[in-house]
Amino acid sequence: MAKLKETGTEIHVRSIFLQGLLLMQQDNRPRYFDQWSEVLNHYDNFLKDSNANNLEVCLNYPFQFEEIDKIIIGVDNFDQFVQIINSIQLTKETIPEEFVSEDLDLINPRQWKC
Hints:
Elements: H1 2-6, E1 11-14, H2 37-49, H3 54-60, E2 68-72, H4 78-87, H5 104-107
Parallel strand pairs: 1-2
């Protein structure tokens, strides 16, 4: 991202909730995602151990990267919009490496086969 910023590129991120996957409770996730249970369990344990809210963690994670200019999110209704706005803390919370994934089959929803 640093190289892109050096060229004057504006960086936008989207799907910060992974199409809602990161907002789901463990028992509600489709079985398709069982193949990533290790990384998702680390995520769930982080939320539980740090008493963190999954919505707040997802919203605030991109703020760790000063190169990111805009965050694009989708909502289903006005209540979701208000909840999202109220959850933005603008903290630069460090996300543990244990649940950072570069597996495109997980982090790119277009590749999901469910």
